[in-house]
Amino acid sequence: MLKNNGKRFFLIASEDEEKKSKIKDWIDSKYNDAVVYTAVDYMECLIKIKNAPPNVFITDFELAKGRPGQIIDTILSDLNSRVAIIVIGATARNENQFDAITVGRLHFFEQLNSLDELNDGILKISNFAFQNEANQYSLKFLKAGEVLIKEGESTQQVYIVRKGTLRAFKKKPTGELFTIGEIKAGEFVGEMAYFNDEARMASVDAVTDSELIEIQPAVFEKVIYQRPSWAKTLISTLAKRLKTK
User: Fold this and answer.
1) Topology of domain 137-244, per CATH?
2) Choosing a second label site near 33 at 20 to 30 A (CA), which of 55, 114, 154, 201?
3) pTM metric for this prediction
């Protein structure tokens, strides 16, 4: 499938050529690894989704050559499909659609007032859309203010920050929060709990909208061994931690 080559694939469906062009230009400006293609009606969508399934499908609710919302239900009825969907011009209409919203696969805009709003929709379906199929590591997306790690948790997932800035912080006995430091693009997060086999020593949240690579503990050492650039990043992160102690 197309998802395996490291690119992010977007399909935009609308009869409005100007709208498609504006959305395509916006995606290209936001994602340097995006491949964007378009469709004009229901039948063209079916063909392109079957032959070149996108990560994200952005569509008008009403498309020519199909019933309103038909393309959404067609995609959701395919149990093997991994396509995430953003719909413009409607709200959820049935149980399958509500279920897809719950799992972060589907997002509706009753009215899209600006392209900047589209960013919020993509963030909401990104964890579904961009999961790596190898299950060794996957992409994780956080909105500003969203918590990644809670102090005292026993989880041991390790992360690399690809984009954005995160904050590590602790809570005083008085309940006051104090910042330990910032984690920026190119640094690891959560590696100390893995190496020390202990609970999380601090909480971490997103200062800005952020994109991370999540590595499962069971394959962490294998993945690091296979990717020397990540090993170098890990050493750099650990060196920084030692300097700040």
Assistant:
1) Jelly Rolls (2.60.120)
2) 114
3) 0.61
